[in-house]
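For homework, think about our next protein:
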Amino acid sequence: MRRLVGALLAVAVLAGCGGGRERQAPVVPAKLDPETNLLVYPRFGDSKPHPWKGREPYSYPIHGIDVARYQGDIDWSRVKAAGINFAFIKATEGGDYLDPMFRDHWRGANRAGVRHGAYHFYYFCRPAHEQAQWFIRNVPRSSSDLPHVLDMEWNHQSRTCRLKPDAATIRSEARIFLDMLEAHYGRRPIVYTTVDFFADSRIDQLQNTEFWLRSVAGHPRTVYPGAFWTFWQYTGTGLVPGVEGAVDLNVFRASPEVWLRWAG
């Protein structure tokens, strides 16, 4: 069985490297859950697969992607048919940048019936309230959307901002952003973060906040000991039908029934 799965994974990786949406088939197709009518337990290809120890991401039923301009045009109907149940779409960065593909991705996910939310990439050289205002200006308000996301991580490659605030300042600014979006959209945003930023900022001390954690080389329970997560980003090199090239893959923490309640 292990040899068979390994062979299938190798085929999917080679297909993804060869380009072309038609060849990026899931390693294991999603199954239809009769109780919720959701496609669950897909196993997608990966151009740089990780040898998981302990609980694998594929053991979670609900999978999703996050996308930005780098993914280009997306065939959202194929994405959904492959077993993707949600998408987080980059909208804004700082106080003056709008992802050029945001509106296309937003409309495409909406037409295909893929539950979606938007995310904001935080810029440490601009006040939180200005960034929240910019996000609100560009992201529509709809009762069918998922909670939006505040993406906070160190940006070592920034050409314009090398500022690294202290942990207390980070948490204070995050609260301002989260409070403003919650007041406008009616639901508190999720916080996305990475291992080093999580440790440096102690962002988990924020009250009444859910977290989306990046961990591409181990389960969050070992990489973020004691942390409670709602979403886990388990690879940045996934291969999904309908998306050209690599894409981030994520799982929701619980069952299809819990997902439907949580997603609203």
In short: Residues 1-23 have pLDDT under 50 and may be disordered. The radius of gyration is 18 Å. Helices lie at 2-17, 76-81, 102-112, 128-138, 167-185, 195-201, 220-223, 256-263. The longest strand covers residues 84-93.
